[in-house]
Amino acid sequence: MVYIGPLILGFIIGFVLGTRIKPSIGSKLNFPASVYVILAIVIVIIAYQQGPFPWYTDSVFANGLISALAGIIVGKLTFGRG
Questions:
Q1: By the 8 A CB rule, do 20 and 79 touch?
Q2: Residue 75 forms part of a structural domain
Q3: Would you say residue 10 lies in a domain?
């Protein structure tokens, strides 16, 4: 059974964070595709190490973190403007 609460909340928080990632004209800070690949690898490792809540038995990952990663990517692609 998949619990929908952590999935929705993680996606919403990730989406909001993804929309806030915008390039600034005066800043030399850059987020190339390799940053998102490294972020995805780190989030998958952390989600595996953290595991689900004690009473969740749907997967070995923390589903909220995985859906937050999806929210960051979707938010960046739709409203990130860059």
A1: no
A2: yes
A3: no
